[in-house]
Amino acid sequence: MRTAPSIIAAAERPPTNAPAARRGDLWALLAGAATPLAFAPFGLAPLALLAPAVLFAAWLDAGAARAAWRGFLYGCGLFGVGVSWVYVSLHVYGRMPAPLAALAVALFVAALAVFPALVGAAQARGRSLGTGTRLIVVMPALWTLSEWIRGWFLTGFPWLALGYSQSDTWLAGFAPWLGVYGVGYAVALSAGLLAGAWRLRRRRLACLAALALLWAAGALAALPEWVRPAGAPLRVALVQGNVGLDIKWQPAHLERIVARYLALSAEAGAADLIVWPEAAVPGYFDRVAPVLLPRLEQRAREQGADFLVGAIERDARTGAHYNTVFALGDARGRYRKQHLVPFGEYLPLPALFRWVIDYLHIPMSNFSAGGDEQAPVRAAGRVIGVSVCYEDAFGEELIASLPEAELLVNVSEDSWFGDSLAPHQRIQMARLRTLETGRPMLRAANTGPSVLIDHRGRVTARSPQFEAHVVTGRVQPMAGATPYARLGNAPVTVLVALLLVVAAGVALWRHRARCP
Fold it and tell me: I need a labelling partner for 472 at 20 to 30 A (CA). Which of 56, 120, 239, 481 fits?
């Protein structure tokens, strides 16, 4: 004889309908593949609401296993399209054989797809809470928590967090308060409300009204001025050398590469600060310095400028190598990259993965990480928060230099991505950093685009890609601190954790009420 709990479980179990189940799976996959279109360079921001709404609706009628499968399919679509540039890096520039590169990307995408799969399985455990609570409370909170975990787990990979897609919408107003994950929570909540308007017919107007209020709150959140101008604007120049990877690390080309950067710097005219990209000097700085420094100092005197120059530093005492940005001219100081790229700049578990470096032929792939107590870089009379390459994808790391830093500088080697989505996605991520911190950012990339971004996330100057170019303009240093700069990701993670704890408590209470 069946017990009461087993009868309830049977009643809650969705009916088996293989064609309908397969259609739900297909919708989840297609929704995931469409989501990257919400991000740069496409900019179809509404898709970041609509595509997750389709997934959330597909989760409602699925058990835990089916929901996990649909989350996995969504993740395969999302990351299979959105991080397709990894194949370009591995095969085209890393010279990894095409089948091996395709396999590596497939495994990488599958690993990332585990995060939405876990969200799907977890939300299905709360079926007793009801459709509305799952859509509006549980799913958005779990989604945000999973994005935050993905941003630091195993050094972190925060690409395609939903909040980045809203850099040009009202929801971006939440960025100075709660950071990109707070914006992402607003996106996921919007998706839940949209799905609720579809599935909860009696509450459709309430869902749409709540959606309108959420977006109005985002517009109002952008109104406070947390920062203020600090002194006069700076005249700046970003030097984009467009040096191909096929010649960059060949010693025979070093002199010609340095001469190119010096000549392009001369085109900048009078400037307060001139920035060269990551590893613009493709050799050990101590070897190049005797020849380069006198020429740079002469150029600095003629143009009245300080320089920030990316180069490779080695410690003669310890033998350690660092990916470093040097402040030169009247300025002095340096920044050593702290957040290194696994397999690109250091090798996890060398005994197991040495073959990866052998296939990729990555030069300078054995860096040491700089310390987290480095003195601020000072140049052009300003305190500057410097980051190297994809360090600007980690908002909570960049705020470590605040509120002292008056502007942000990122130097990058984007030629590894070729003509793919990645350089454009990275600029959009940098725009969120400026909104979070209330600081302008100068972003110099070897092959571009190089951009100037003001403290409100607007690109004020941009270079063409794959051309030697100098971006010039003025940036306004800023002082003060946004709530996010003071508190980081703590508020949004505490918020979603509390929502989930309350939901779990309600689910447990209902379960006990049913099973005396």
Answer: 481
| φ, ψ (nearest 5 deg) of residue 28 | -65, -45
What distance lies between CA 390 and its chain's CA centroid? Answer: 8
337 is catalytic: yes
Higher pLDDT, 272 or 331: 272
The active-site residue, picked from 147, 207, 389, 396, is 389
Pick the catalytic residue from 76, 147, 313, 337: 337
**CB 393 within 8 Å of CB 159:** yes
- Is residue 104 within 8 Å of 88, Cβ to Cβ? no
Lowest mean pLDDT among 94-98, 184-188, 304-308, 386-390: 94-98
Q: Which of 147, 278, 345, 436 is catalytic?
A: 278
Q: Are strands 273-275 and 306-314 parallel, antiparallel or unpaired?
A: parallel
Instruction: Please list the residues that pair with 332 across neighbouring strands.
Output: 378
Say which amino acid occupies 168: D
Q: What angle separates helix 139-150 from helix 47-60, to the nearest 10 degrees?
A: 120
Q: For the chain, how far is it from start to end, CA to CA, in angstroms? A: 18
In sequence order, what DSSP letters do the residues of 302-354 get, joined into one string?
Answer: HHT-EEEEEEEEE-TTT--EEEEEEEETT-BEEEE--SPPBTTTB-SSHHHHH
Say whether 278 is catalytic.
Answer: yes
Place of tokens 């109002």: 220
141: its two tokens: 């909170």
* H/E run at residue 387: strand 382-388
Q: What is the CA radius of gyration of the chain?
A: 25
Cα-to-chain-centroid distance, residue 58: 27
What type of residue sits at position 510? R
**Contact between residue 181 and residue 193 where contact means Cβ atoms under 8 Å apart:** no
What CA–CA distance (Å, rounded) separates 486 from 490? 10
Write phi, then psi, for 451 (nearest 5 degrees): -140, 155
DSSP 130: -
Q: What is the mean pLDDT of residues 337-344?
A: 86
Q: How far apart are CA 174 and CA 436, in angstroms?
A: 9
Reply yes or no on whether 248 is catalytic.
no
Closest listed residue to residue 117, CA positions, set 165, 82, 150 = 150
Helix intervals (H) in 83-154: 85-87, 98-124, 131-133, 139-150
Nearest residue to 121 (alpha-carbon basis) of 59, 202, 166? 59
From the number of C-beta atoms within 10 Å of its C-beta (0-12, 13-18, 19+), residue 168 rates as middle
Q: What is the pTM of this model?
A: 0.93
The number of CA neighbours under 13 Å toward the Cβ of 30 is: 9
Q: What share of the chain is helix, strand, coil (3-state, %, to 5)?
A: 55, 15, 30
pLDDT in tens, 238-293: 999 999 998 998 889 999 999 999 999 999 989 999 999 999 998 889 888 888 88
Short-list 368, 293, 360, CA closest to 323 = 368
